[in-house]
Design a protein that fits this description.
The protein is α/β, with parallel strands linked by helices. Helix content is 52%, strand content 19%. It binds ligand C2E and magnesium ion (3 copies). GO terms for molecular function: catalytic activity. Residues 24-279 form the EAL domain.
């Protein structure tokens, strides 16, 4: 019986593995075609708010992909695949250029200059030679002031000594581009990189925000992160703020900004424009 069960399990596992490989092949082909066609990707922008004043403070650019047959594919699904097959390099460059273009268009239309746009950067992009030059070129082409662009990195990217990463980050800072740490608190416990690189903002991961109001423990973690950030002269942004209770508590804990469904999900450019015009 044990043998049979074992066989059954093996069969089950085998089928699941098969589905994964197939799914990856389908995604691969679909991504390749989408990159060639170029008309299936768009950026949505999630507004960020100052917790103390309630004012709009910026936008995070989030990549969206609508495939004719697969429908809307979640970035959680296609970004890891694009990182594995290297497509993230051209795709990520498209994201940087499109976001810069959008923000410069808004600025020329009268958007207040303190509103920034944040762009997520993959470790694969950062490790590649030439990323800083690509960003410099995107800024030059769109005539966007470098301080209007913030790049979101993850903790592991700052621990990575391989490739051009560390030098690239310092070049970007010298250019005047802002850096933020995304998903803060989910990565390494060694925080030496906070001294090593000139970071402007910490984005407190939404898993901590979601648990706020639960145990005193979770509140203590957010309090400690905010406290440390204040001492280092960094600003903090809470991700995934969904309730007024969370917003209120985050503000009380001294967190500077927030983004989340309490305000808006990621929106089309026209909806964002309406927001900064009414601000
Ligand atoms: P992230 O950078 O941490 O982005 C925040 C994610 O949280 C977004 O998911 C956003 O839609 C979602 N979110 C915002 N507010 C709330 C909320 O109140 N509740 C909940 N439950 N979720 C909220 P999205 O757009 O699906 O993106 C997932 C991840 O994919 C991003 O996480 C980011 O790591 C990656 N990603 C998205 N766009 C890009 C891109 O252009 N380049 C790269 N390299 N990665 C990207
Ligand atoms: Mg992000
Ligand atoms: Mg991210
Ligand atoms: Mg995040």
């Amino acid at each position: 019986r044990a043998k049979e069960m074992g066989r059954g399990q093996f069969h089950f596992f085998d089928e699941r593995l098969q589905a994964t490989v197939e799914e990856q092949l389908v995604l691969d082909a679909a991504l390749r075609e989408a990159l060639l066609r170029g008309d299936q990707f768009r950026l949505a922008y999630q507004p960020q708010y100052d917790l103390a004043t309630g004012d709009l403070s910026g936008f995070e650019a989030l990549l969206r992909w609508k495939h004719p047959e697969l429908g809307e594919v979640s970035p959680a699904r296609f970004i890891p695949q694009a990182e594995r097959n290297g497509f993230i390099v051209p795709l990520g460059l498209w994201v940087v250029r499109t976001a810069c273009q959008q923000v410069q268009t808004w600025r020329e239309a009268g958007m207040p200059a303190h509103l920034r746009v944040s762009v997520n950067v993959s470790p694969v992009q950062l490790r590649r030679t030439g990323f800083a030059e690509q960003v410099r070129q995107a800024l030059a082409e769109t005539a966007l002031q470098p301080g209007a662009l913030e790049l979101e990195l993850t903790e592991s990217m700052l621990m990575d000594e391989v490739g051009d990463g560390p030098r690239t980050l310092n070049t970007l800072v010298d250019m005047g581009v802002e850096l933020a740490i995304d998903d803060f608190g989910t990565g390494y416990s060694n925080l030496g990189y906070l001294r090593r690189f000139q970071i402007g903002r910490l984005k407190i991961d939404r898993s901590f925000v979601a648990r706020l109001g639960g145990t005193a423990h979770d509140e203590a973690i957010v309090r400690a992160v905010v406290h440390m950030a204040q001492n280092l002269g960094l600003r903090t942004v809470a991700e995934g703020v969904e309730t007024e209770a969370q917003r209120e508590l985050l503000q009380r804990l001294g967190c500077n900004q927030g983004q989340g469904f309490l305000w808006h999900p990621a929106l089309a450019p026209a909806a964002c424009e309406a927001l900064w015009r009414q601000a």
